[in-house]
Design a protein that fits this description.
By secondary structure, the chain is of the alpha/beta class. It is about 45% helix and about 20% strand. It contains 10 helices and 9 strands. Helix 2 links the parallel strand 2 and strand 3. Helix 1 packs parallel to helix 2, helix 6 runs parallel beside helix 7 and helix 7 runs antiparallel to helix 8. The longest helix is centred in the C-terminal third of the chain and has 29 residues. The radius of gyration is 20 Å and the shape is globular. About 35% of the residues are buried. About 0% of the residues have low confidence.
């Protein structure tokens, strides 16, 4: 039986401290045929030099594609470039320059893809490590996020997407910081989610990554608004595009519209509350009488009480 080509998409930016381990773990994948894209987003350190050094020394079965962007594009735009023009696999496996990947990650994804032909997104458990590589804890989804009909809160470091999930919708907006939020909805619209309970990724948490430490509360709120606000707007745009092409799906998409709009509203209210204390009185008075805000609050409280933290 012919095995599908998979693409291991490793993107990096200023990660010279960790990139060697990341690339070595990508090159050690046991699955074949495998295309490995090593793409640097115009780093100012030695990240790309280390990529080139390891690629030149490699003599294994995998196909290596090296890329360095002439100028910094940002995470979402960089990932879009890799998915659209540099990769050719039927499945696109996400990877970052500061994480470590088990040798059988691509193999497990290929096995799950064959078992679940309707899957559009495959994700796995992971082990969270610190900047020294020491294990912090194991990460597994709660039962609520695995319920049928829900969009799981997938961790972008562990996912693989079927190629048409990107091709159908096109590039992710350059202002979007966490593309996993956008790609999760796209996956839900075009297929199903498949979960591998094994830990296939060692996900590194440190002060300089996207979910790292912040210097103050204002920076934290600004990052939250930038990361989530634009992602929710992208979701609405994707949903509109999907329904223009497949209007017969409107009935099942109604809940998505409501959920996305609710998420965007709460994100912006939270940002305004934290960033503009002089307006808190107005915000409180306006929203305490808003039936919609109360509906969102009560529905989320009920969901947490019944199922724990749910998906997006």
């Amino acid at each position: 039986m012919n095995k599908p080509l998979l693409t291991f998409c490793l993107v990096a930016y200023n990660q010279e401290e960790y990139i060697r381990e990341a690339v070595e773990s990508a090159l050690s994948q046991t699955y074949s045929p495998l295309e490995i894209v090593l793409s640097d987003d115009c780093s100012s350190d030695r990240t790309f030099e280390i990529m080139c050094e390891l690629a030149e020394a490699y003599c294994g079965p995998h196909t290596i594609v090296l890329n360095r962007n002439p100028q910094n594009m940002g995470l979402a735009a960089h990932a879009s470039k890799v998915w659209s023009t540099l990769s050719h696999g039927e499945w696109l496996i996400g990877a970052a320059g500061d994480d470590i990947y088990l040798p059988n990650r691509a193999e497990k994804i290929a096995e799950m893809a064959s078992l679940c032909p309707n899957a559009s997104c495959i994700w796995s458990g992971c082990t969270i490590i610190d900047d020294k590589g020491e294990v912090v804890r194991e990460s597994r989804p709660d039962s609520g996020s695995l319920r049928p009909g829900r969009i799981p809160a997938v961790l972008g470091a562990t996912v693989a997407y079927r190629r048409d999930v990107y091709d159908f919708f096109g590039p992710v907006g350059h202002q979007v910081r966490n593309d996993d939020v956008v790609m999760s909805l796209r996956s839900a619209l075009l297929g199903e989610f498949a979960y591998i309970p094994e830990s296939l990724v060692r996900y590194r948490k440190h002060s300089t990554n996207l979910s790292g430490n912040f210097t103050d509360d204002r920076q934290k709120v600004e990052r939250l608004r930038a990361r989530l606000g634009f992602a929710y707007l992208q979701q609405l745009s994707d949903l509109q595009l999907f329904l223009e092409r497949r209007p017969e799906a409107y009935r099942r998409c109604g809940a998505y519209f409501t959920g996305i709009e609710d998420n965007y509203l709460i994100t912006q209210l939270f940002s305004a509350w934290r960033l503009y204390p002089e307006r808190r009185g107005f915000l409180f008075c306006r929203n305490v009488i808003s039936p919609r805000v109360w509906r969102i609050f009560l529905s989320r409280l009920f969901r947490r009480l019944i199922n724990g933290k749910g998906g997006r």
